[in-house]
C-alpha cells in the first residue's frame, strides 16, 4: 500500500520536473501528462510557462475530467506532430490553442514506467517546434525517463525500509510524517485517529514480552484490514498507533471509523502456549485541516485519547464549541458524554440491606485516571471516600479488581491469605471471590440463628446431626 503510494507520487514529481525543464529550455508554452492504465487515461493539469500568451491562461484553470478517458487506438512511440482536434486529452482547450496559432501538438508515449505508462503532450509555437534537434532531444529524454524513474523509486524503497516499524511492518513516526506530507490536501476532510491499547502492560507482566509482541503484531494486522488503501497506519512506539484517514465525509464518519477500529482491537488474541490475551483500546479523533501542520493534528488527537482514558475509556472528539465529547466504542449511535474536567475520580454509592435497617456496604466506581495508579494509592483514595459508610456498616475495603472496581464488603465475606493480596491475577481473584461468597453465606446463617435466638428467648434447636444419641427416636 505505502510502496504503491510512494511510486505514484514520486513518478509524478519526476515527470512534472521533466516537463517544466523541457518547456523552459526550448521556449515552449505548455505541457501535460496523461497516465495510461487498463481503466483508461487520467490527465494531470496543464503546466503553463510564464512566457505563454495571455490567451492560454484558461489552461491553468481547466477542470479535469472526473472519469478516465479513452486513450484511443493510436500510439506515439516517437515524438509526432498531431492536429489539436485529434488529441483526446486536449479537446477542451482546442479553440484557445488555435486562437494563438497552434494547430498541431507534440505527442510522445513513454512506456516501461513500472506498472503504468504516460503520454506527454506539448503545446509550442510553430517556429520553436521546427528548431533543429528539438524533437530528437525530446526523443532522448523520453527514452531515458523510465530508467530515471525506476532508479529513483528503488532508492526511495530502500529509504522506505528505514521508515517502517521492524516488528509490525507499519510505518514508524518518520515514515508517517513523510507520507503524510505527500497526501493531497484538497477540499476533503482528513482525520487523525490516535489509538492506545488498554491493558497491554498486564499482558506483558502476565505472559511475557514475546506474548506482548504477538499482541502488537495482531493489532497492526487488524488495523490494516479495517482501513482503505489510501489511508495510513503507523506505530509510534510501545502500544500507540495512529491512523490517518483521507477523504472522510465528516467528523461523525471519522468517529464511526474509530469505533470500528476499537471494536476490532477488542477481540482476544491467542498467544504462544495457548494463553488468551485480552486488551481494549481508547482513541482520540482530530480533524486535520489544510491550513494546519500535521504535527498539530497528531498532538490534538493524542490529548483527546488521554481524555478518553482519564474517564475510563472510549473515543474522544472535540466539537466546534471546544467541548470534549466521549463516545462509547460499542454504543453505535449512542449520544456522546461530555467530559467533566473537575469531577472526582471516585464515585461512592451506598448499599443497603433490605432485610434490616442500616447499611451493608458500598459500591465504588473508579474513574479512568486511576487505571495506571498503584494499587496502594487507589485503595487509599477509595478508603478515604467510603470511610463514613464503611464505619457505619462495620466493614473494611477489599479491591475486587485493581483500578477497575472496588467493593466494601463485610469482614466475614473477605478472602483470606495470598488471594486477598494478589487481586491483579484473574485466577486468584476468582478463587478469592468464591471463598468470599462462601464466607458471606456462612455469615448470613449465623445472623439468622442469632436473630432467632433473640426472638424466642432460647437457643435454636441443634441440628439433627448434633442431637444427643438418647434424644433420637
Molecular structure report:
It contains twelve helices and 19 strands. The N and C termini lie far apart (88 Å). It is elongated and about 120 Å long. It has 473 residues and is α+β, with helices and mostly antiparallel strands. The strands form four sheets. It has a seven-stranded mixed sheet, sandwiched between helices. A hairpin with a 3-residue loop joins strand 18 and strand 19. It is 39% helix and 24% strand. Helix 1 packs antiparallel against helix 4, helix 6 packs antiparallel against helix 7 and helix 7 packs antiparallel against helix 8. It has three domains: 160 residues, GAF domain (Beta-Lactamase), CATH 3.30.450; 166 residues, Alpha-Beta Plaits, CATH 3.30.70.270; 111 residues, no CATH class.
CATH class (first level) name of the largest domain: Alpha Beta
Helix content: 25-40%
Helix run count = 12
CATH topology grouping of the largest domain: Alpha-Beta Plaits
Backbone structural class: alpha+beta
The CATH architecture of the largest domain comes to 2-Layer Sandwich
The coarse overall form would be: elongated
Mean pLDDT score: 77
Our estimate of the beta-strand percent is: 15-25%
The CATH superfamily name of the largest domain is Reverse transcriptase/Diguanylate cyclase domain
Strand line-up across the major sheet: 8-9-7-12-13-14-15
- Ranges where pLDDT stays below 50 over 5 or more residues in a row are 339-344, 399-432
What is the terminal-to-terminal distance? 88 Å
Largest sheet: 7 strands, mixed
Radius of gyration: 35 Å
E-strand count: 19
Number of domains: 3
Amino acid at each position: 500500500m505505502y510502496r504503491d503510494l510512494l511510486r505514484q507520487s514520486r513518478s509524478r514529481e519526476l515527470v512534472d520536473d521533466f516537463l517544466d525543464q523541457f518547456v523552459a529550455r526550448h521556449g515552449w508554452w505548455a505541457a501535460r501528462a496523461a497516465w495510461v492504465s487498463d481503466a483508461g487515461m487520467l490527465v494531470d493539469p496543464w503546466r503553463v510557462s510564464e512566457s505563454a500568451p495571455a490567451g492560454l491562461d484558461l489552461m491553468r484553470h481547466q477542470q479535469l475530467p472526473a472519469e478516465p478517458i479513452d486513450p484511443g487506438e493510436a500510439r506515439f512511440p516517437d515524438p509526432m506532430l498531431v492536429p489539436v482536434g485529434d488529441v483526446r486529452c486536449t479537446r477542451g482547450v482546442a479553440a484557445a490553442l488555435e486562437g494563438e496559432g497552434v494547430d498541431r501538438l507534440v505527442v510522445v508515449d513513454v512506456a516501461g514506467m513500472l506498472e503504468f505508462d504516460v503520454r506527454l503532450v506539448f503545446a509550442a509555437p510553430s517556429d520553436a517546434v521546427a528548431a533543429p534537434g528539438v524533437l530528437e532531444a525530446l526523443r532522448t529524454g523520453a527514452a531515458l525517463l523510465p530508467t530515471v524513474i525506476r532508479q529513483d523509486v528503488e532508492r526511495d524503497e530502500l529509504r522506505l525500509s528505514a521508515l517502517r516499524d521492524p516488528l509490525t511492518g507499519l510505518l514508524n513516526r518518520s515514515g508517517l510524517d513523510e507520507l503524510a506530507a505527500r497526501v493531497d490536501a484538497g477540499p476533503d476532510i482528513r482525520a487523525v485517529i490516535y489509538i492506545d491499547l488498554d491493558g497491554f502492560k498486564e499482558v506483558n507482566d502476565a505472559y511475557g514480552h514475546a506474548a506482548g509482541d504477538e499482541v502488537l503484531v495482531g493489532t497492526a494486522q487488524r488495523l490494516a484490514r479495517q482501513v482503505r488503501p489510501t489511508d495510513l497506519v503507523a506505530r509510534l512506539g510501545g502500544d500507540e498507533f495512529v491512523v490517518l484517514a483521507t477523504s472522510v465525509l465528516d467528523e461523525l464518519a471519522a468517529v464511526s471509523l474509530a469505533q470500528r477500529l476499537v471494536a476490532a482491537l477488542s477481540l482476544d488474541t491467542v498467544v504462544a502456549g495457548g494463553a488468551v490475551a485480552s486488551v481494549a483500546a481508547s482513541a482520540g479523533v482530530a480533524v486535520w485541516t489544510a491550513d494546519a501542520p500535521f504535527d498539530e493534528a497528531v498532538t490534538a488527537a493524542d490529548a483527546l485519547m488521554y481524555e478518553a482514558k482519564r474517564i475510563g475509556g472510549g473515543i474522544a472528539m472535540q466539537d466546534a464549541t471546544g467541548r470534549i465529547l466521549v463516545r462509547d466504542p460499542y454504543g453505535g449511535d449512542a449520544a456522546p458524554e461530555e467530559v467533566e474536567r473537575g469531577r472526582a475520580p471516585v464515585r461512592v454509592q451506598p448499599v443497603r440491606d433490605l432485610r434490616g435497617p442500616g447499611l451493608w456496604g458500598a459500591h465504588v466506581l473508579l474513574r479512568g485516571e486511576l487505571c495506571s495508579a498503584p494499587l496502594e494509592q487507589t485503595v487509599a483514595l477509595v478508603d478515604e471516600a467510603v470511610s463514613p459508610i464503611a464505619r457505619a456498616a462495620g466493614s473494611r475495603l477489599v479491591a475486587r479488581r485493581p483500578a477497575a472496581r472496588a467493593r466494601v464488603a463485610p469482614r466475614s465475606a473477605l478472602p483470606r491469605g495470598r488471594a486477598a493480596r494478589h487481586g491483579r491475577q484473574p485466577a486468584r481473584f476468582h478463587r478469592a471471590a468464591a471463598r468470599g461468597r462462601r464466607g458471606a453465606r456462612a455469615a448470613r446463617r449465623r445472623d439468622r440463628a442469632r436473630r432467632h435466638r433473640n426472638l424466642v428467648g432460647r437457643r435454636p434447636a441443634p441440628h439433627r446431626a448434633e442431637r444427643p444419641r438418647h434424644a433420637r427416636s
